[in-house]
Amino acid sequence: MAISATVVGALLGLGTQMYSNALRKLPYMRHPWEHVLGMGLGAVFANQMVKWDAKAQEDLDKLLIKAKQANESRYFECKRIMRRIMSLVFLP
């Protein structure tokens, strides 16, 4: 997964630099160091996005577990209270 993100990011950086040169009607490979820099920044960006997505998924899973526990405790607490009220109301 990290290799594909790196490759996609590098291609995105390269494509961005070439597109920028094309818009300005410059030679595509003018200042090759800018292409290398763009590829490096694109690779870093793509890898950070993959890490961020994994972290966001972990956080979401934790929040869903907490919400499920809160809902269950709310349901069972309400059920226990209702049972207590019913036992008090219908005492002989």
Beta-strand segment tally: 0
Which structural class should the secondary elements be placed in? mainly alpha
The percent range for strand residues is: under 5%
Largest sheet: none
So how many helices?
A: 2
Termini separation: 68 Å
Q: Quickly count the domains.
A: 1
Unreliable spans are none
Q: Report the order of strands and helices.
A: HH
Mean pLDDT: 87
Spatial shape: rod-shaped
Computed CA radius of gyration, to the nearest angstrom: 28 Å
Helix content: over 70%
What would you say this structure looks like, in words?
The chain is mainly alpha-helical. Helices cover 87% and strands 0% of the residues. α1 packs across α2. The longest helix is centred in the middle third of the chain and has 58 residues, at 32-89. It is rod-shaped. 11% of the residues are buried. The model has no long low-confidence stretch (mean pLDDT 87).
Question: What's the structural blueprint in terms of helices and strands?
Answer:
Elements: H1 2-23, H2 32-89
Helix pairs in contact: 1-2
Task: Name its key features.
0% strand, 92 residues, single chain, 2 helices, 87% helix, mainly alpha
What's the quick description here?
The protein is mainly α and 92 residues long. It has helices spanning 2-23, 32-89.
